[in-house]
Amino acid sequence: MILDVAFRIDILVENKVLIELKSVEELSKVHYKQVITYLKLSDIPVGLLVNFNTDNIKDNIKRIVNNYID
Q1: Is 3 within a domain?
Q2: Radius of gyration in angstroms for the set of CA atoms belonging to the chain, rounded to a whole number
Q3: Cα angle at 15 between 1 and 18, to 5 degrees?
Q4: Choice between 8 and 69, residue whose per-residue pLDDT is larger
Q5: Is 12 helix (H, G, I), strand (E, B) or coil?
Q6: pLDDT for residue 65 is more than 60
Q7: How far is residue 56's CA from residue 50's CA, in Å, rounded to a whole number?
Q8: pLDDT for 69
Q9: Which is higher by pLDDT, 1 or 56?
Q10: CB of 67 within 8 A of CB of 61?
Q11: Number of domains in the chain
């Protein structure tokens, strides 16, 4: 049985930054988990979660890092 890729990245910048776009009242844990899953499956180091349903978009861009080691 052949399965297609089960996820779709909204925007991918130079295979280094994944951008997931949302338009919701408030970002929830499931949105963050979705980005983390996409980062792990695609082995991309950094993701941005952007919510457009807001008065100030600057406050609704969240940076998420895959396998961050301090």
Answers
A1: no
A2: 13
A3: 85
A4: 8
A5: strand
A6: yes
A7: 11
A8: 59
A9: 56
A10: no
A11: 1
| Contact (Cβ atoms closer than 8 angstroms) between residue 46 and residue 66 | yes
Tell me: the pLDDT tens digits for 13-55?
999 999 999 999 999 999 999 999 999 989 999 999 999 999 9
In a domain, 25, yes or no: yes
8 A C-beta contact, residue 49 and residue 31: yes
Q: Regarding beta strands 17-22 and 46-51, do their DSSP bridges make them parallel or antiparallel, or are they unpaired?
A: parallel
Amino acid at 18: L
How far, in Å, CA of 2 to CA of 19, rounded?
27
- Give the range of the structural domain holding residue 40, as residue numbers without chain letter: 11-65
Determine the pLDDT at residue 7. Answer: 79
Structure tokens at 69: 């080691």
